[in-house]
Amino acid sequence: MKTIDDVILRMDQIVSECTLKESRIGYFAILYRQVTIRIKEGINNQEFEDNPRMEKLDVIFAKRFIDAYESYHAGTTLTQSWKLAFDSSKSTSHIVLQHLLLGINAHINLDLGIAAVESVNGQNIHSILNNFNKINEILSELVDGVKNNIGKISPLFKFLIHFAKGKDEVLVNFSIKLARDGAWKFANEYLLHTNKKECILHRDQIITGLAESMINPGKRLSRIIKIISFTEWKSVSNTMDQLNQITKLS
Question: What InterPro entries is this protein classified in (predicted)?
């Protein structure tokens, strides 16, 4: 996998596989495919500070999700944060936004820092900071778009968003902004660490713990999430269809 077109093609295949299998892994795959499409459009329009480097970063970054997805289905080793996100996709009790953010948690909090270091290949990591931030900005805009239009999938969540006044991340114990800041800090730590495998393992344990708190956010929030879940569509393929439309509008 060498180009952003290779990534989009594989993401198309993963979305199709998830649709056929009624797999909720497809929720994140749809969102992330649209992130990749947006980045490709930006590269074609010369929008980034360093467009060739942005493509390199995007390909390395995306490959970590794709490799995790393939390892999970092959029954081979993958990071615990991705395994937990994929295992959780089998549950009908989590709301759509939880599934999306569990994927984002593993991908931003762990994968992005690793991809950033690998993409600079020993050069000054600060040279990639603007591209790093741009990926997070695109992802954040798409997630906001999904939340703003989620009434088609989750009418009660839309109602709660209206009254949350920007604090809706409390419902799932996750903030993309905090994830971005933590990912950049981790990238700098990973760059300097002498034992890269040990560094990834330690970070993965922390991020898995965060994922567990998103799945079980306490009695009060768990009750709210359970009520929201009852009102959401149960057809995975139909939900994926709506998510696909929503992300294209965002």
Answer: DUF5995
